[in-house]
């Protein structure tokens, strides 16, 4: 489902998403929509799904901590060619952040100020911070 800014900020929704909290999209529904977008992008870019994730919303910030499965080809090269795989990791994260920002804005109709992301290939854990222009809760 695509939401426009008025629907999200004013809670003017219909159907099963129509339950409002503080005249906004319910936080639980918002979290589900963000995670759907996040997982879809990861699947498209990496071809591998997320093992687990935790999402929290605080004001205008969304925090996502996820456990990934390392791309097997990169994992194979990590020990001998970490400089190369680190460069590939950085390029993939940049692509991921750009798509995440675009798809969140398009789908939720909310303005994203920045998407910050880091990934530890040994632990296979990433941390993502999404900063929206407007508060999402509170």
Cα separation of the termini: 24 Å
Q: Judging from the principal axes of the Cα atoms, what is the shape? A: elongated
Number of domains: 1
Ranges with pLDDT <50 over ≥5 residues? 2-23
Overall pLDDT, averaged?
85
User: Main β-sheet: number of strands, strand sense, barrel status?
Assistant: 4 strands, antiparallel
Percentage of residues assigned to helices: 40-55%
Strand neighbour order, sheet with most strands: 1-2-4-3
List the defining traits of the structure above.
disordered N terminus, Threonyl-tRNA Synthetase, Chain A, domain 2, MpsC, Na+-translocating membrane potential-generating system MpsC domain-containing protein, alpha+beta, 4 helices, 138 residues, four-stranded antiparallel beta sheet
What would you say this structure looks like, in words?
Mean pLDDT is 85; it is low at 2-23. The protein has helices at residues 5-10, 27-46, 72-78, 82-108; strands spanning 50-58, 61-68, 112-120, 125-132. The longest helix has 27 residues, at 82-108. The protein is 43% helix and 25% strand. The chain starts with a helix and ends in a 6-residue tail after the last strand. The chain has a single domain (5-132), classed as Threonyl-tRNA Synthetase, Chain A, domain 2 (2-Layer Sandwich). The protein is of the alpha+beta class. The radius of gyration is 16 Å and the shape is elongated. Strand 1 (50-58) and strand 2 form a beta hairpin.
